[in-house]
Amino acid sequence: xxxxxxxxxxxxxxVVLFLGNIITGVFWKVHADRTCDLxxxxxxxxxxxxxxxxFTVPGVFLIIATGVGLALMAGYPLLRTFWIAWSLxxxxxxxxxxxxxxxxxxxxxxxxxxxxxxxxxxxxEYDRLSKSWTLWGTVATVAPLVAVFLMVMKPA
Length: 156
What we know:
This protein is an all-alpha fold. The chain is built from four helices and no strands.
């Protein structure tokens, strides 16, 4: 039983770090964009990309490993338990949104901001990329938030 609670604690901690990092990244990008300062934008984007590498991506692996471990320890059939199956699907949607949209867009936004610092600023392109980042980021953030709700409520 102690193993179960240690694993559950790691699972919850990894979810907190994962979601906290995503939500904090949104805050810093919006905050930097509101300054209209290219240095602030570049620094925020660089920090977001690095924090994804250090917290978001490892959090994904920890969430999956600990979550699957918990389900197996508790005897839940992963794909036949409604709330687990849907949570896994939502987590997958979040990962796809990050991999296809958010991650690549953050890199493009950073390149754009750094080009602006070098005197080649393209505001229209930055705004276009930011709109796409917001769309993909909303999907990447809302999906795991719904998964957390499912995990806590465990609806039949």
